Amino acid sequence: MVNGGLWWSVWWWAKLVFVFVFLAALGVCFFLWIGPFLMNKEVIPILNWETETFSKPVLAVLIFASVALFPTIFIPSTPSMWVAGMSFGYGFGFLLIIGGCIIGTSIPYFIGSLFYHKIQGWLERYPKKASILKLAGEGSCFNQFRAVMFLRISPFPYIVYNYCAVATDVKFVPYLLGTIVGMVPEIFVAIYTGIMIRTLADASNDQQSLSAPQIMCTVFGFLLTVATTVVVTVYAKKRLSELQTDEEQLLLQ
User: What is the reported pTM?
Assistant: First the structure.
């Protein structure tokens, strides 16, 4: 049994290393051949149009407005976050996005309160799917904050949760704070992606290829970002399952 467990562990790590090496090789191929082609045909014309059409202040207003309003009409705001990363980097880009997210998640919460009983009826018709959502409305403010944070990090569709949250009786302050903290990983991934796109576009526009160290650092940074996101997401999903199990045990007592 011990040897079997050891071999299984070695095999699991070997598969993980293989996948990491494969993704790294795929990333290098992308940066050397596929990336420059896409940059010249698609990204660079869009960036040139953007810089010629909008000033920085106008672009900032458009990014803020899109991040704030798109989630209320069920449109993903991730492309706007990429543009924030491309145009403003980590500092001001993060402030733009987090400010827009605060508004973009608050509006559906208050709209949902107008349809409180109707949303509650919908949740009651799907008790199994709604059980995770209802965790956010249980316990103290800290427990609500923690549950909302894990929901934001997990793969659960956050645009839907924005409207359903109020029907789970989660208070607004824990909802908002959990949302802000839970969305930080996604925001940094989006900003990093935008910065990476800008770096590739600048290199392609100048007819210069990235040096080997630049390629390796970019690929490694991207893989590290993806790996961190996956780990955090898996952990959040696991913690949600544990919270759900604890809640079910309390109900049985």
Answer: 0.71
